[in-house]
C-alpha cells in the first residue's frame, strides 16, 4: 500500500469482460459509511497516459470522500473506437456488481475523467443511459475532449506547435477514420440526444484549450434537463497537461477542484445513505 498526498492506494489487476486491466484503488484515511465509488479514466490524448499520470485527479477525488478505481485503459488505445470506450464501460459494469467489496453495497457510482478520459467518461454516461445500466449517479468531466474538429476559439488561442498537434494525432488514432466522428459516443459534442444522462460536473480553466467545448457541452446538458454543476478556474493552470505533470505534488488549484468534487457528491446525494 502506497500513499499520495495523504491518500493511500493499492495497485492490482481488475477482471473485466475485455480482459485483465491494471488499476489503482485510492482511499482516504477517513471515509463515510457508504462512500461514493468512482471509476476514474486518466488523460493522455488517446496516445499515452498511465495510472501514474492519473494519480493527481484520483487523489483529489479520494480526498473529496470517494473510493476511486483508476483504470489503465491505455492498451485499448492501440485500437480505434470503440475499444477504449467498451473497455471502460465493461469496467463500470463490473464496479456495479463489486461495489460492496470495494466500498459499500449502497455506494453511489460515478465516472470521472480528464481530457481523453473525459471523453470516455461522457461516453460511458451515454452508454449507461442507453443500455439501462442503473446506478450511475454522476459524471465528472475535466477538460474533456469532446469535439474532434478542434475549431473553437479556445483552441485557436492555444499555443501552436507540437503540443497543438497532440490532440489531432490523438483524435486520428481514436476515431480510426472520419466517419466515426459522427458517432455520439465517440464525439459527445455532436450527440443530439442528451436527456436522461447522469448529472454532470464540468470543470475547465481560462487557459484550457478545451474551455469552449467543455462549457458548450455543459450548456447543452442543462438545456436537455440534466443537472449540471460547472466551474471555470481563472488562475493559470496549464490544463490539461498539468493533470499528469503534478505527480506527488498538489498544485495551487488542487483544493478548489477537490472542493467541487465534494460539493458535487453532496448535491447528488452520494453521502446520504
From TrEMBL:
Molecular function via GO: hydrolase activity
Q: What Pfam families does the record tag this protein with? A: Abhydrolase_3
Tell me which UniProt keywords the record has, alphabetically. Hydrolase
Has the keyword Endoplasmic reticulum been applied to this entry? no
Q: Residue ranges of the Alpha/beta hydrolase fold-3 domain?
A: 38-232
Per its UniProt record, what InterPro entries does this chain match? AB_hydrolase_3 (IPR013094), AB_hydrolase_fold (IPR029058), Carboxylest/Gibb_receptor (IPR050466), Lipase_GDXG_HIS_AS (IPR002168)
The question of whether Phosphoprotein is a record keyword is answered with no
What superkingdom does the record give? Bacteria
The Swiss-Prot or TrEMBL record describes its family as follows: Belongs to the 'GDXG' lipolytic enzyme family.
Q: What is this protein called?
A: Alpha/beta hydrolase
Amino acid at each position: 500500500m502506497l500513499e499520495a498526498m495523504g491518500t493511500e492506494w493499492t495497485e492490482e489487476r481488475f477482471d473485466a469482460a475485455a480482459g485483465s486491466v491494471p488499476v489503482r484503488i485510492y482511499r482516504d484515511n477517513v471515509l463515510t459509511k457508504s462512500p461514493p465509488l468512482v471509476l476514474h479514466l486518466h488523460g493522455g490524448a488517446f496516445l499515452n497516459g498511465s495510472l501514474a499520470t492519473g494519480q493527481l485527479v484520483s487523489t483529489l477525488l479520494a480526498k473529496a470522500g470517494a473510493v476511486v478505481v483508476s483504470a489503465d485503459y491505455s492498451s485499448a488505445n492501440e485500437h480505434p473506437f470503440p475499444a477504449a470506450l467498451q473497455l471502460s464501460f465493461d469496467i463500470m459494469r463490473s464496479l456495479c456488481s463489486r461495489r460492496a467489496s470495494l466500498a459499500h453495497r449502497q455506494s453511489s457510482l460515478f465516472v470521472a475523467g480528464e481530457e481523453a478520459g473525459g471523453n470516455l467518461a461522457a461516453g460511458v454516461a451515454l452508454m449507461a443511459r442507453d443500455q439501462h445500466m442503473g446506478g450511475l449517479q454522476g459524471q465528472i468531466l475535466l477538460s474533456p475532449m469532446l469535439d474532434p474538429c478542434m475549431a473553437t476559439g479556445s483552441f485557436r488561442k492555444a499555443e501552436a506547435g507540437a503540443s497543438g498537434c497532440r490532440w489531432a494525432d490523438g483524435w486520428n488514432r481514436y476515431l480510426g477514420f472520419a466517419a466515426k466522428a459522427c458517432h455520439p459516443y465517440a464525439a459527445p459534442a455532436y450527440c443530439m440526444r442528451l436527456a436522461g444522462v447522469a448529472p454532470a460536473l464540468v470543470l475547465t480553466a481560462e487557459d484550457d484549450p478545451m474551455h469552449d467545448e467543455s462549457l458548450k457541452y455543459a450548456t447543452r446538458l442543462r438545456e436537455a434537463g440534466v443537472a449540471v454543476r460547472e466551474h471555470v478556474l481563472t488562475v493559470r493552470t496549464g490544463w490539461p497537461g498539468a493533470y499528469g505533470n503534478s505527480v506527488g505534488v498538489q498544485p495551487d488549484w488542487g483544493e478548489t477542484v477537490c472542493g467541487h468534487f465534494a460539493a458535487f457528491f453532496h448535491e447528488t446525494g452520494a453521502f446520504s445513505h
